[in-house]
Amino acid sequence: MNEAAKPELAGRIALLGNPNVGKTTLFNRLSGSRHKTSNFPGTTQEAVLGRITVDGVEHQLVDLPGIYALNLDSSESSVCRAVLNGNLAPEGEAPAKPDTLVVVADSTNLLRNLALVAEAARFKLPTVVVLNMVDLARRRGIHADESRLSEILGCPVVAMSAKSGENVDSLSGAIAKATPPTAAVGDSEADAERWADETYSAIAAPAPEDIDDDHDALTDRLDRAFTHPVLGIIAFAAIMTGLFWVIFSLAAYPMDWIDAIFANLGGWVEATLPEGAIRDLLANGVVAGIGGTVIFLPQICLLFLLISLLESTGYLARAAFVIDRVMRPFGLSGHSFVPLLSSHACALPGIMACRAIPDRRDRLATILVAPFMSCSARIPVYVLLVVILFPESPTMQAVAFAGCYVIGGLAGLLSALIARRSFLKGKSSGMALELPSYRAPDLVLSLKTSAERGWVFLKKAGTVILAISILLWWLGAYPNVGPAPESEALRTQAALVSDSEQIAALEAEADTLDQRYATQRSYLGRIGSTIQPVFAPLGYDRQLTIGVMASFAAREVFATTMAVQVAGTEEIEDEGVQNAIATAERDDGTPVFTTATSWSLLIYYILAMQCLPTLVVTAREAGGAKWAFLQLAWMCGTAYISAMIVYQTLRATGLG
Amino acid sequence: MPNLPLSDWQFWIVTALALGALWILIRMFLPKKKPKGRRTTLTVSAKRRQ
Q: What is the ipTM of this complex?
């Protein structure tokens, strides 16, 4: 059913709250949505729409960005103010004040949250205040009297836990009874704070018998370690390396299964279909191409599962705190941490999250360096090259994989430093960060996040990667050329000898020469040969050049491109897609992937800008195409020079 | 004239598929219509009520 055919909604309910109070968790629970939640501030950069039924009538539910105060000079604050004033509405809808405002407050941090409640009360909209995370507050011995708060405010107050679902059902009844607050909170910021102090004293008191001293003591001990300037960094590095080690160790099994499935599928197609172009396209184009990428699905699902688990425990907020200290000397503030962390999934949401950075120069610097963070599209290339470099050691694979993320991060920080010392000169602004309580990891949500990322990857495999596989196969299969000039002589020689082994050897050699000749003379071969001199200083041959060029459509296409190119010359059915790529040969018979070439490629893919949508978003968010061109030139230039240095050094020292 | 197997019907099928694939890739670089969906962006520069 399209949007236009949907019934008219009875009203609009806006969800307002501080960052990290479980607002999005509540939104998901009320609307049945699976929108990503985060327990560190800044994730919700857009309003997300859902539907909620109140008294049998459907209302629109708007999840507003998390804010610390309504009077701040930040884009999120101004968006919330404009929505509450009725000046702003979702695209395509008439601006109007929300019919009901639901202010979500964290019961464990009620004093600070009440200041926002006071600010919201000034808008005199029908309001419901939600005291969220009551279960956690109870465990920590914090008791808030919601009836007393309701009396003071003059509007309904509901205590609940959006995460566990405790008392969530009573919210729809409260929304139906929502009234504008009658409390006199004053006009100034000081008035709001005074009101919050007085109200907090009146409603909140610890219940000594319930206090969970052990939990607080554990939180303090963990925080002392995780936020320590040195220990915190070591813990962060150890946790991330351990995470990657788990990924490589566990993902190896499903990867082998997927590899075997696609190898057998290719063999089955070749054995079943009659000889011809369609069979070749299916076996060497579609199956090899898709298989070359889908094999990395386990890594992607596992990475996002583990990151999401970490995030739900509250650890990532501590990591943000620690990394803030690291970023400061490079001219970036802690505000940049969330955009840069988001960029590890994809640079697009990361760059869009930069809207939350209040300082323009901080924001521009973060936008420019965000694509240096290793996004999920790079994972297949990293995995392929790391496995080629360290075929027998999952530990070294994990270290090298973690190293890719470190190199990308360092390149981003150094680039930010250069930008902040030259064309974006100035002091970066400070950041306030609230550390949430430690919580048990949310396995269900993490599994959903992992499944969503996996599905996005598979959808891409079914569209862009399938299209590139078909196109590359066609370009590699045509035009038809006759046998190689040298193979004629070998076949003539084979006809003259009587030894059957010698005949077989000569004919096999002639077949290989024909294959190489056909590949070189194909459209794809000619394109590769034309561009290859540009990448020759980096050690790339014709096939790798095609792989790098095709990656400008999508980085993960590299493995597919290599798979399609080697499918015509290697026995994928026998050795699997990954091994066939690893053992691919150049036109002169030498290996495509030497140590020097593999490191050079790895460095190139870590640093290069190969994503058109990111450039478009950069131009939009930074306020001009010049920023996108600067990003493209800087990243590709850095990647080219660094890869060349690595390749030439390894060759010169005999290590490659 | 490149040596293409114009008389082979299979060639025309794989060529049609390749052209379809090319169109999918070209479409990536063309400006897109904004998708209708539940997720929306609120910006301060959006239309204000007079």
A: 0.73
